[in-house]
Design brief:
Layout: H1 2-17, E1 19-20, E2 24-26, E3 41-45, E4 48-55, E5 63-67, H2 78-86, E6 90-94, E7 104-105, H3 110-116, E8 145-152, E9 158-165, H4 176-191, E10 199-205, H5 207-217, E11 222-230, H6 243-260, H7 262-268, H8 271-278, H9 290-300, H10 305-313, H11 321-325, E12 337-342, H12 350-355, E13 362-368, H13 375-378, H14 380-396
Parallel strand pairs: 5-6, 5-10, 10-11, 11-12, 12-13
Antiparallel strand pairs: 1-2, 2-7, 3-4, 4-6, 8-9
Length: 399
């Protein structure tokens, strides 16, 4: 009942605090996060507002940036923020654009997309269109479809000659290039205190691709990536079996959800149902408490959130972990990667994760026993010590 009352209160307050900020829905976060007990701050990024939190001594020498996964937000790091702060680090968690209390521009707003979209100017097909793209950073352009890529299988094998479509099929700004640029600019503007400092990234689920893209784009800002349960994008066109037949069907379903899915969203966006849904990826069931349901669900009930959920479910493209980690430009020497996963995770095939250890950029792969898709929240007593070991490895400069 308390959770329902809180949701009703937030919605009522939203009617007063809701504003259209640069063609975006923006709802002010509560002054203090109920999950982390940390102040919520706001970073203005490309005309949008980004919610972030910081734990630890603001003068601590080493900084860590936490990047959340699908349909969650910075509060999902409630147990990691404390663990890092207690160990003497500055730990930052931010809401990616469209998530949590960050701004939620419409996926179809062309003006906003021309300012925010990280896909702008990246592809050969964009040649000559840069004049309509505000604040564009010069980049070496490449094809929007990478041919003949080597990807993994659930059994730990390899698939050869895969075509990886990188561009969002609807031109939406909700893509890994946008989020990668957001992470990099947040790190540069908020986190780093001097030009010689670097930050370490910690990421979960689809936060993996966003973080790896940030490293590929701005390698001078980062000194390591600690991955927790990478997502292999089951709805990606390169992952769908018999894509030539199945993708048109999937596109039709995605279009139907975008146009008619609000009723379904409303039925699912209830505390009891969200708690039941979370029980699937969480193997440690007692970690799914009312606090978790509250801090994950409440932002999803704010205006604009459902449009972004359905847009994200339509994102059957973008970079994939194997492709990013095998990119010749990945800074293997200066930015080591450790990958972890829960051995009871129903969504992340363990053998495919283990196969990432064959890549030169990945130093270590570790399985957490009897843990699901969110080890950092399910079993911080397992994750935090390994994360601290990784940070010490970076500070010492050797594995």
């Amino acid at each position: 009942m308390a959770t329902l009352q809180r949701i009703c209160l937030i919605l009522a307050l939203s009617l007063c605090t809701l504003c259209r900020f640069s063609n975006s829905y923006t709802v002010a976060p509560p002054p203090v996060s109920p999950a982390t007990k940390l102040p919520n701050n706001v970073y203005e990024w490309r005309g949008q507002q980004v919610r972030w939190q910081m734990a630890g001594d603001p003068n601590a020498e080493k900084a860590v940036v936490l990047v959340h996964g699908l349909f969650v937000n910075a509060d999902h790091w409630r147990r990691t923020l404390k663990g890092l702060a207690d160990a003497g680090y500055r730990a930052y968690a931010l809401d990616l654009l469209g998530s949590g209390y960050s701004s939620k521009p419409s996926p179809w707003d062309v003006d906003v997309s021309n300012t925010v979209n990280g896909e702008r100017g990246r592809f050969l097909e964009d040649e000559g269109k840069e004049s309509a793209m505000e604040g564009l950073k010069p980049r070496t352009k490449g094809p929007s479809i990478l041919p003949n890529m080597k990807l993994g299988t659930a059994g730990g094998g390899e698939r050869l000659d895969c075509d990886v479509d990188l561009r969002h099929p609807l031109g939406s700004p909700y893509n890994f290039y946008t989020w990668g640029e957001q992470i990099a600019e947040f790190t540069q503007d908020v986190v780093l205190k001097n030009k010689n400092e670097k930050a370490t990234l910690v990421c979960n689920s689809i936060g993996t691709m966003s973080s790896l893209q940030a490293v590929l784009d701005e390698p001078e800002l980062f000194d390591g990536v600690f991955v927790i349960c990478p997502n292999f994008r089951e709805l990606h066109s390169a992952e769908i079996p018999l894509a030539k037949v199945s993708m048109p069907i999937l596109r039709s379903v995605q279009k139907l959800l975008r146009s008619k899915g609000q009723g379904l969203f409303d039925q699912l966006a209830k505390p009891s149902i969200v708690k039941e849904i979370l029980m699937e990826p969480y193997h440690v069931s007692n970690a799914v408490d009312d606090e978790l349901v509250d801090v994950l669900l409440t932002p999803l009930l704010t205006p604009g959130a459902s449009d972004i959920v359905f847009d994200t479910l339509s994102y059957s493209a973008g970079p994939l972990p194997e492709q990013q980690l095998s990119d010749p430009s990945f800074p293997t020497e200066s930015c080591p990667v450790w990958v972890t996963y829960g051995d009871k995770d129903p969504w992340t095939p363990g053998k495919r994760v283990e196969a990432l250890g064959k890549m030169p950029s990945v130093e270590k792969v570790v399985a957490f026993k009897d843990v699901g898709n969110c080890p950092h929240d399910e079993a911080p007593e397992l994750v935090n010590p390994l994360l601290l070991e990784f940070l010490k490895r970076i500070e010492n400069g050797s594995d």
